[in-house]
């Protein structure tokens, strides 16, 4: 067994890689902008008080191949599988985020559409055991009101029309999922999609939701937070390490019962989120933009399908926020030294 993780030194990808190291599963890490130091630092921060575990992880790190890869280039992608013919699983996370897509639609289509198709083709051509890729909650559109009751948790089979979309990114995810199911039906391959909501944690460096890092990391470092929406805005939040665990478990399960899965998470208002942080950092300073009543995302999603499939329930919001705060502080100390 050997995994390829594309986008493997990114925000979620690096956590997936560390998760595989913990399981002693060989991994090839591919990224267009390799940040090897950041990926190794995550492992160091997580096991800073466990030198024996760090030594074990170091063995895995030393055996890991880090490669530069543009997933939109089919020849480059195929070369990876020719160089590492023992790759059996792929977790595909190489994607341009919403703001990047809007800034450059051509590049966005190359990476997010052609890059995804390249991975589907590799699944067929190299007879992979499974490909799991990151879809998104944005597949459900930009407003929860499209689903009626504000307390309703959106399920995987719920329909969203194009009229209810805001992000080109979300529509690209729709096309990815549609195409994936074509490959499953016509080629007999094993492909699954996960639809994360707002993924929070320390270390997010790009994208239109940098506030999903800043809301807790800034207070941890004694800095104020400015959130670009009302304190009453509601979103669904999940900790980054839990998402990584979900990706790996879904990849490893021998047989899956479904194609698409909501990751789940905790549905809270921005004010509730602030109070969670303040419980840990009492002097945290927040500013909201009350002119923006909500984010262009759904408010709640049902995760029962994934919980039953992989027998994993994400940690509590407070546990996730506390972990992020501790990690941010430790990282800052390392930088200072």
SSE blueprint:
Elements: E1 3-6, H1 13-22, E2 27-31, H2 36-46, H3 51-62, E3 65-68, H4 74-83, E4 89-92, H5 98-103, H6 105-125, E5 130-134, H7 168-187, E6 191-195, E7 198-200, H8 211-220, E8 225-227, E9 234-239, H9 240-252, E10 260-262, E11 266-269, H10 270-280, E12 286-288, H11 304-310, H12 317-336
Parallel strand pairs: 1-2, 1-4, 2-3, 4-5, 5-6, 6-10, 7-9, 8-12
Antiparallel strand pairs: 9-11
Helix pairs in contact: 1-2, 1-9, 4-6, 6-7, 8-12, 10-12
Domain NAD-dependent epimerase/dehydratase: 4-254
Pfam families: Epimerase (PF01370)
Keywords: Carbohydrate metabolism, NADP
N- and C-termini, Cα separation: 39 Å
Query: What is the fold-level CATH name, i.e. the topology?
Result: Rossmann fold
Mean pLDDT: 95
Order of helices and strands: EHEHHEHEHHEHEEHEEHEEHEHH
Integer-rounded radius of gyration: 19 Å
Proportion of residues in helical segments: 40-55%
Total number of strands = 12
Beta strand %: 5-15%
The biggest sheet amounts to: 7 strands, parallel
Low-confidence parts lasting 5 or more residues at pLDDT below 50?
Answer: none
Query: CATH-wise, what's the superfamily?
Result: NAD(P)-binding Rossmann-like Domain
Number of helical segments? 12
Decide which structural class fits the backbone.
alpha/beta
Overall number of domains: 1
In order across it, which strands form the biggest sheet?
3-2-1-4-5-6-10
Shape: globular
Annotated CATH architecture: 3-Layer(aba) Sandwich
CATH top level label: Alpha Beta
């Amino acid at each position: 067994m050997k995994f390829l993780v594309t986008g493997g030194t990114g925000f979620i990808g690096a956590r997936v890689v560390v998760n595989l190291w913990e399981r002693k599963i060989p991994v090839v890490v591919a990224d267009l902008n390799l940040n090897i130091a950041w990926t190794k630092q995550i492992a160091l921060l997580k096991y800073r008080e466990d030198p024996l575990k760090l030594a074990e992880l170091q063995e895995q790190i030393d055996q890991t191949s880090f490669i530069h890869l543009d997933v939109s280039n089919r020849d480059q992608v195929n070369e990876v599988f020719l160089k590492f013919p023992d790759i059996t699983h792929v977790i595909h996370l190489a994607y341009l985020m919403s703001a990047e897509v809007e800034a450059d639609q051509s590049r966005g289509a190359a990476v997010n559409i052609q890059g995804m198709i390249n991975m589907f083709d590799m699944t067929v051509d190299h007879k992979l055991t499974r490909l799991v890729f990151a879809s998104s909650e944005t597949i459900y559109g930009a407003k929860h009101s499209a689903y009626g009751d504000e307390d309703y948790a959106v399920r995987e089979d719920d329909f969203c029309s194009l009229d209810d979309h805001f992000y080109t990114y979300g529509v690209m995810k729709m096309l990815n999922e549609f195409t994936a199911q074509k490959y499953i039906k016509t080629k007999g391959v094993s492909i699954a999609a996960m639809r994360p909501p707002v993924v929070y944690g320390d270390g997010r460096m790009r994208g239109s939701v940098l506030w999903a890092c800043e809301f807790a990391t800034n207070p941890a470092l004694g800095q104020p937070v400015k959130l670009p929406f009302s304190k009453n805005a509601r979103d669904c939040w999940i900790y980054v390490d839990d998402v990584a665990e979900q990706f790996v478990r879904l990849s490893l399960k021998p047989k899956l019962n479904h194609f698409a899965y909501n990751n789940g998470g905790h549905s809270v208002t921005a004010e509730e989120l602030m109070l969670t942080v303040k419980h840990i950092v009492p002097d945290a300073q927040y500013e909201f933009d009350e002119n923006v009543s909500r984010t262009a995302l759904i408010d709640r999603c049902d995760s029962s399908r994934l919980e039953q499939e992989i027998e994993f329930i994400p940690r509590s919001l407070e546990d996730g926020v506390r972990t992020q705060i501790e990690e941010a502080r430790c990282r800052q100390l390392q930088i200072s030294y």
